[in-house]
Specification:
The protein is mainly alpha-helical. About 70% of the residues lie in helices and about 0% in strands. The chain has eleven helices and no strands.
Length: about 180
Amino acid sequence: MLDKKIARSLKKTNIGKDPTIVMRRVRALWYSLSRAAREEVLDMAGVKLTTLQRAYRTGSISAKLALPLAQAADASPYYITGETEERGAYSDDLAIQMLKTHGYGKEASSLAKKKGWETRHAAAEAAPADDAPEFALSFEEKAPEIAFDDCVALLRSMTLRAEFNPRSAEALQQIKKLLLEM
């Protein structure tokens, strides 16, 4: 996972391929994020809002901004820079590959080392203990009481997210199936 130290060490040089595509995609992804996610992107990159606005006005985007935005929006960094047409999903492997192709070998290796540590650490935590109780609850037991208006608002937000994120589209389909079964 990309962190502040790596993101802030990147240069502010343009890596976008097609300015019109970059403008459109940055704007769409930026406005699909929540306020907290937007603040996290700006904080991680160490830039101000005007820098991001310049990116979606001029179509010029740096790796310093593209990678945190890709991570927050769960989109391929290559999609943001206009190098590919498929939105895809963010992964550290894509970030490492992008850093290498744009001349950030040192940052790519530090992200790869960090990723290796995180994978080993997550695997150690995920190893189930033999004495841990197993919980098998049905859907009805897990479902909290939710007001009808809240359900409608959740479905609308999931529908908006599904337009930009394939994982959200799959989740929306599963939710719709569950609601039809009730």
